[in-house]
TrEMBL record:
Biological classification of the source: Bacteria, Pseudomonadati, Bacteroidota, Saprospiria, Saprospirales
Keyword terms of this UniProt record: Signal
Domain CusB-like beta-barrel: 218-289
Protein name: RND family efflux transporter MFP subunit
The UniProt record lists the keyword Signal: yes
SUPFAM superfamilies associated with the record: HlyD-like secretion proteins (SSF111369)
């Protein structure tokens, strides 16, 4: 009896030890952020960075070469139209001017001498002509006097031509001396100095850069997707990081037709407000309001920028579909065809519908079919 009981206990223990209980483990639910796909009317605000420039920016140079004698201006100095900017040493040019003036005087003396000879030759010709008509002189004598008169006329013409040429040389030499003085063609500010005193400056070498203070401009580079939506006269808003709290109205003055080998197109914006606070070289931000003046537009489906990713097979989003529980979703990888970029997001041509919920954070940890929940904060 006791043996039988012991055997029964052994069987019971063996049965209990061989049984394994299966415990159901729920898959992990990742917390993510999400946003809705919306509808846009096609208007958007695009922001691009640029640099302020003066509307008139002119490098000033001499028309002649020489050693820079004086440069009586400083960086940032305001100058008036006609004010002296720099001078060259005029000594060599003054020598040439003196030689040209002496040559002109010599030519003038030759003209006067030739004209005196012409007067005498004309008087002899007139007298001989009357005598020849009365048969008082021979034909050979008349022809000789006529030839001398014609020669005197030719000498006067040659002397006058020489005088004109020497006069032109004298005027050119005088201009060369005058070109050793460089003056401001308009009122403005000296924004750059390229040489120093006693330095040799070749003809055409920039001495200083003179910039206007009125109508500052900002140049930005716009990608090819947007340049077609811009036109001259379009209004924009300009801000400067160095002038906080102020927004300046602006107008597009130029839109480049060609990109000149670059993927972006330069656009020039004229700033309307006049203020000395805006200086060339300042960093600027230009806000373009696109689509507002083009009339009614078709509705566009727009997805949040952060929701779009790109893989080997193209761009995609993770659309969130209802899950097994009310507070859970299932992430589905959906390929999308995107269009223009706007501040509201990417225009979706195909793949999503308005109101779709898409993941906007943690996309690199998501896989197709993964259960997720939304972060409350």
């Amino acid at each position: 009896m006791r043996t039988s009981l012991y055997f029964s206990l052994l069987l019971l223990l063996a049965a209990c030890g061989g049984t394994t209980e299966e415990v159901a483990v729920d898959p992990p639910v990742r917390a993510i952020r999400a946003d809705r796909v919306t509808i846009s009317d096609g208007t958007s605000v695009q922001t691009f960075n640029g640099v302020a420039e003066a509307a008139g920016r002119t490098p000033l140079s001499f028309r002649v070469a020489g050693t820079l004698r004086s440069l009586p201006v400083n960086l940032g100095q305001r100058v008036n139209r006609g004010q002296l900017i720099a001078t060259l040493d005029p000594a060599d040019l003054q020598v040439q001017q003196s030689l040209a003036a002496a040559q002109r005087q010599a030519s003038q003396a030759q003209v006067e001498s030739a004209e005196t000879q012409l007067i005498a030759a004309r008087a002899a010709y007139d007298r001989t002509s009357r005598l020849y008509e009365n048969n008082s002189v021979s034909l050979s004598q008349f022809e000789q006097v006529r030839s001398e008169f014609q020669s005197a006329q030719a000498q006067v013409e040659a002397a006058r031509s020489q005088l004109e040429a020497s006069g032109a040389q004298a005027r050119a030499a005088g201009n060369q001396v005058a070109y050793t003085r460089l003056t401001a063609p308009f009122s403005g500010v000296i924004t750059e100095k390229h040489v120093e005193e006693n330095e040799y400056a070749g003809s055409g070498k920039a001495i200083v850069t003179l910039s206007t203070e009125e109508n500052p401009e900002v140049e930005v580079n716009v990608p090819e997707d947007f340049v077609g939506r811009l036109s001259s006269g379009q209004r924009v808003e300009v801000t400067f990081s160095s002038i906080p709290g102020r927004t300046f109205p602006g107008t597009i003055s130029e839109v480049a037709y060609a990109a000149a080998g670059s993927p972006s197109y330069p656009v020039t914006v004229s700033v309307s407000d006049q203020t000395e606070a805006i200086r060339p070289g300042m960093a600027a931000t230009v806000r373009f309001h696109l689509g507002e003046s083009t009339g009614p537009r078709d509705s566009l489906i727009v997805a949040p920028i952060a929701s779009v990713s790109e893989g080997p097979d193209g761009r995609f989003v993770f659309r969130l579909e209802p899950g097994a529980r009310d507070d859970q979703y299932v992430a589905r990888r959906v390929p999308v065809d995107i269009g223009d970029y706007t501040t509201a997001g990417f225009v979706i041509r195909e793949g999503l519908r308005p109101g779709d919920l898409v993941a906007t954070a943690g996309l690199n940890q998501l896989i197709d079919g993964m259960p997720v929940r939304l972060l409350t904060q």
